[in-house]
Amino acid sequence: MQPSNPNPVDRDPQGRYPQGGLAFQHRDLTGIAQLARHEILYLLDEAEQWVELNRQSHKRAEVLSGLTIINAFFENSTRTLLSFEIAGKRLGADVVNMHAATSSVKKGETLIDTAMTLNAMRADAIVIRHGSSGAVRLIAEKVDCPVLNAGDGQHEHPTQALLDALTMRHALKLAPGSDLNGLKVTICGDILHSRVARSNILSLTALGADISVCAPPALMPADIEAMGVRVFHDFDAALKGAQIVMMLRLQQERMQGQFIPSPREYRYLYGLTLDRLAKADPAALVMHPGPMNRGIEIDSQVADHPTRSLITDQVERGVAIRMACLDVLTRRTRRVPGWDALSGDAA
Amino acid sequence: MTPRPLTIIGGRLVLPEGEPVLGAIRCVDGRIAAIGPDVQAHDGDDVVDARGALVAPGLVDLGVFAVDKPAFHFGGITRAALMPDQSPPLDHPARVRFAAQWGKPDMWVHPLAAATVGLEGAHLAELALMRDAGARAVATGRQWIGDSGVMLRLLSYCAMLGLVVVTHAEDAGVTGSAVATAGEMATRLGLPSAPAEAEALAVARDIALAEMTGARLHFRQVTTARALDLVRAAKARGIRVTAGVTPAHFMLSDLELANFRTFCRLSPPLRSDADRKAVIAAIADGTIDVIGSGHDPRGAEDKRLPFSDAEPGMAGAETLLPLTLTLVRDGHIDMARAFALLARSPATLLGVDAGVLCAGAQADIALVDPVRPWIVDSDKMAAAAGNTPFDRRPVEGRVVALFKGGSRVD
Hints:
Chain A is α/β, with parallel strands linked by helices and 347 residues long. Chain A has helices at 37-54, 79-90, 111-120, 135-140, 158-171, 195-206, 235-239, 252-255, 263-270, 274-277, 300-303, 311-329; strands at 68-73, 94-99, 125-130, 147-152, 184-188, 210-214, 230-232, 244-247, 285-287. Chain A folds into 2 domains: 20-156 and 316-329, Rossmann fold; 158-311, Rossmann fold, CATH 3.40.50.1370. Chain B is 29% helix and 23% strand.
């Protein structure tokens, strides 16, 4: 149903990527849905070097020196904004943050006007978070520089899905270039409102994982089976055999008694406790995109578990993934050899 | 000043029944004086040669949101029933009287009175006063009336007044803030969505209330198989309900939402392809009585927004006729029925003596080349705005001349 990637090129039998810009033929990163499998793997592999750099005491490369990156966040965010800001700075770019709370957006300026304003300031990349599905794509159509989606409504959050895949690959000690073939992943929580779930379903299915989703019926989107996942309402059943358990944040502000009776009752049915985790694979690992509601969707003993929780690893990989995305998407601007302008409508 | 009599010769007459027949039509004092194969022009008549075009009734567009004369004339529309969703709403006799004059003389507007004050669904508006100020029917507006008690009292009151009630069929409790029909497409795009059954729920309730009160109820748009089944069954039981639809719901499905195209943000939202086919079947079997444009021109300030922030609605007046003609070309209906859907049935609902070519009726006439090809272009519309979901679509069928009350419309 989504437009398929027009690029027929894939990795060769030795696992090498297409040359230069053929490895990633998009100007923007608006969603995982637009990416081919090898493009997802390419971004993961590109991030490996930045994981290494970020562990050095001198965490700086001058790759994006002289470039201006605007983080335009129309929705509140702490960790994603910080992660993008650190990623840009570690690559040597000038990073500017625009918060909706302090912007003219509150004064009634339209999204398009804001986009045109940002464009006129000659940013070299714009990172956008917005509360409406499709808003990032709308802006991408109106500006001249690469646009990165840092979360649009209930649609996609592609860098989160990429950092989750990289975290899984590292936790399972898989080599660079590997996919996640056969990995059993259970995603539990408010699937309906979750862009993290949608992007993860797209990227994990592309990488060959076997996905189950679990939520009460009111928080499960219609026909989600069509995205290639198995649907559960019973958490214990969904956990059976899971090697990765990904918990989603219960957005309490959205619930208002309409979707679930109470946080307490939600925890009773869907809270990840140590006892519940025992129903999964004995070595199952736990992930959460944050911020967590401790004691609701996840208990502290699970979240802080020294060997089973990957939650801080996710945050660490997030910076590396965002560095990789900023690097790859600005290569055409920077005239990196082999990265010529895109031909045709491949954005 | 009374215009001279008009005789249109050399055309194929679209009569209430059967295939178009070669013949002529003669109009005197704004009304049809004679029509048929043997009609001749009299000395002193203005004579127009239709050159083989269809001679059809001017369209009667039931349920438009704006009076947009250039678009209506392009589309062959000579009368439009205006929804009460204006600013301010048509909930006062003075505003109804004013709206009834908007398009004259070459375009007649038939205001639909707001059923409730401010269209808020709580207090009945002054329906008898608005009727006598020129309201041709009563409408609930873009929304349904959620309170069943209010709807019951509205229907019984309108049954007494002899006014048709035009209602929007979506259960607002189920739809909430949805902008799409629940299904794979809405799920992939992360759009707030509601199950298609929201329509059947509303239709079921309102049919029950219509049966109880004997009111004449018209569902402005019925777009799902389940709700159409309910209408079909109600008609079979003899309940006085009718149903309408716009071309969007027999031409398009929710697959069009890909890329978040806000020109496809409609109310009710686009449905599944199975529902689209059910709409065509319902047009063919007579369950659907009216095809309207739902004309609602919206500029960039309403449409160039993220999908769920955009306003619903399409500029439909120009494409109403050619898209309906696709149903004739595909063999679902014949030409006489196409114009019954576009003109005769809505005219009957509104109680106006137009919408049909017969002696004595108002001489509202469209000359139509039914196979003339053209391409819909959002940038070059006659409408006040180009928000058409059919942009770039090649279509066939174009109005070549239009007459309102026997006078040519330029």
